[in-house]
Amino acid sequence: MSAPADAADQLRAFGLTYPEAQLKSPWPGHADLAVRDKTFAYLSVAGDPFSLSCKLPFTGAEAREMPFVQPTGYGLGKSGWVTASWPDGVADPMAMFRSWIDESYRAQAPKKLNALAPAPAP
Length: 122
What we know:
The chain has helices spanning 7-15, 60-64, 93-108, 111-116, and strands at residues 21-24, 32-35, 38-43, 52-55, 69-71, 81-84. The longest helix is centred in the C-terminal third of the chain and has 16 residues, at 93-108. Strands 1-2-3-4-6-5 form a 6-stranded antiparallel β-sheet. Helix content is 30%, strand content 20%. The protein is α+β, with helices and mostly antiparallel strands. The protein has one domain (7-114): Aspartate Aminotransferase, domain 1.
């Protein structure tokens, strides 16, 4: 099963609900999520295959065991970043991806903003 056409847009909208989250477009073809200019999620844009990259300091090792996840390129993998493509055979990957965005936001945001962030979903 391929990703819904708006999967990245849905995740982007979810990420923008966090305190001071904003879109960051460091170069053409990017609409990434950042907090105080620190990127917390790289998301594919319309027309590109689905891709999500997040910093996962707590669940990164577990995530890298999944066949659709790899360490993020450009040396970011060494800092706990992972990149996922759309998984086959996962019942609700959007819930998992939202939890990754939450973890990544909390890893990148200042403590004061973390305190204002919504409680993570169970």
